[in-house]
Write a structure and sequence with these properties.
Elements: E1 44-48, H1 52-66, E2 73-77, H2 88-93, E3 101-104, E4 111-114, H3 116-127, H4 135-165, H5 171-194, H6 205-218, H7 226-229, H8 236-246, H9 249-254, H10 276-279, H11 282-286, H12 290-303, H13 307-317, H14 325-335, H15 341-358, H16 363-373
Parallel strand pairs: 1-2
Antiparallel strand pairs: 1-3, 3-4
Helix pairs in contact: 1-3, 1-6, 4-5, 4-6, 5-8, 6-8, 12-15, 13-16, 15-16
The structure holds glutathione (GSH).
């Protein structure tokens, strides 16, 4: 890569262009491989990752539940760094291959919803919540929601990309997008000087859309030390608004869903039940004790494990030793503690399968998911 580049007449791909997202950038759309999406027991099936765009939707779903609506959902992890967004099942839900994507199975035929703004409006209208009914306030909420959809690509794809992710630091690009990011923050700061929330007195989907981007940048949660670089302390009204929203229990839960980085106690890779926040965060899964594992094994045996799953689980358990699951169980009892990463992952798979069975899911689905969620080679 040089700084005196003259574009050719017709662009051609010269291989990966470096940077954090090099492996998933490509100049064409459509699926790269066949892969069905998993399906849980709730009508709403979310396929996502806890980026700011993903968090908007999990915040909304948790807010709906907190407010007493029947918005129970399964949130499945889409690892965009691994290319899951290019699987055939995902592309059928979102032809744009980007998280978040939602299926609503409460209607016939099931309805796909993609683009985070569209998902927020869809859910707000479906449940009649977080979008003001009064036409003036509703219009204001929509104004700011669409402002976010149009503006955040400059913050994320522009500023965040060139400041934090690009393989080279290009002063021109960083200057250009820093200027725009600061201008946008000033837009928000001026508005929030006179308004408690984006659409006035009521918290709405406009706040849920803007907060994960601009709120978290000002609070120092995005792009390394970007808050210092942007002199974020001068956006005091944005910070006040950020802090009020950050204190909401639904927001605290929403930002944990499909999160695969940061504090293990804040990572809930998949969400299938309200209790998952207490029992299935990464710190809890890592703390599984030997007894728990033996209990799981007993449970699996009493349920009558199918041969296919036996062989899959067994495959993970003993680094390829050719034994049956019964021997795996004996191995566990002899070995005692769950020490190695291999053992942890095996235990996590068992736990996953047990709780999936309790939710009434099928063996085959669970086995596939267990393989995918807890890869041995990680
Ligand atoms: N406008 C879309 C943007 C979604 C988006 O950019 N998603 C990113 C993660 S934040 C993604 O899935 N990237 C994967 C890719 O580009 O291949 C929305 O708001 O839903």
């Amino acid at each position: 890569m040089t700084d005196d580049y003259t574009p050719p007449k017709v662009w051609t791909q010269k291989g990966e262009n470096g940077g954090k997202f090099a492996s998933i950038n490509r100049p064409v759309a459509g699926p790269t491989h066949d892969k069905e999406l998993p399906m849980g027991r709730h009508p709403l099936q979310l396929y996502s990752l806890a980026t700011p765009n993903g968090q908007k939707v999990t915040i909304m779903l948790e807010e709906l539940l907190e407010a007493g609506f029947d918005a129970e959902y399964d949130a499945w992890l889409i690892r965009i760094g691994d290319g899951d967004q290019f699987g055939s099942g995902f592309v059928a839900v979102n032809p744009n291959s980007k998280i978040p994507a939602l299926m609503d199975h409460s209607v016939t035929p099931p309805r796909r919803v993609f683009e985070s703004g569209s998902i927020l409006v869809y859910l707000a209208e479906k449940f009649g919540a977080f979008l003001p009914a009064d036409p003036a306030a509703r219009t204001e909420a929509m104004n700011w929601l669409f402002w976010q959809m149009g503006s955040a690509p400059f913050l994320g794809g522009g500023f965040g990309h060139f400041y934090a992710y690009a393989p080279v630091k290009i002063e021109y690009a960083i200057d250009r997008y820093t200027m725009e990011a600061k201008r946008q923050l000033d837009v928000l700061n001026r508005h929030l000087a006179d308004n408690r929330f984006m659409a006035g007195e009521d918290y709405s989907i406009a706040d849920m859309a803007i907060w994960p981007w601009y709120g978290q940048v000002v609070a120092g949660k995005l792009y390394g030390d970007a808050a210092t670089f942007l002199d974020a302390g001068i956006y005091g009204h944005v910070r006040r608004w950020h802090d009020e929203i950050a204190a909401r229990p639904a927001v605290q839960r929403g930002i944990m869903v499909n999160k695969t980085s940061g504090e293990p106690s804040q990572q809930l890779w998949e969400r299938h039940d309200a209790s998952d926040f207490q029992t299935r965060t990464q710190d809890k899964l890592k703390n599984l004790q030997r007894e728990d594992v033996l209990n799981m094994v007993n449970y699996l045996e009493s349920e009558g494990m199918d041969e296919n799953l036996y062989s899959k689980l067994h495959h993970f358990s003993l680094k390829g030793r050719n034994e049956k699951f019964k021997q795996t169980k004996d191995y566990w009892s002899q070995q005692g503690e769950i020490g190695s990463e291999t053992n942890f992952r095996f235990a996590a798979r068992l736990d996953y399968v047990v709780s999936g069975r309790q939710r009434g899911e099928t063996w085959g689905n669970l086995a596939e998911r267990a393989l995918w969620l807890y890869p041995l080679e990680a």
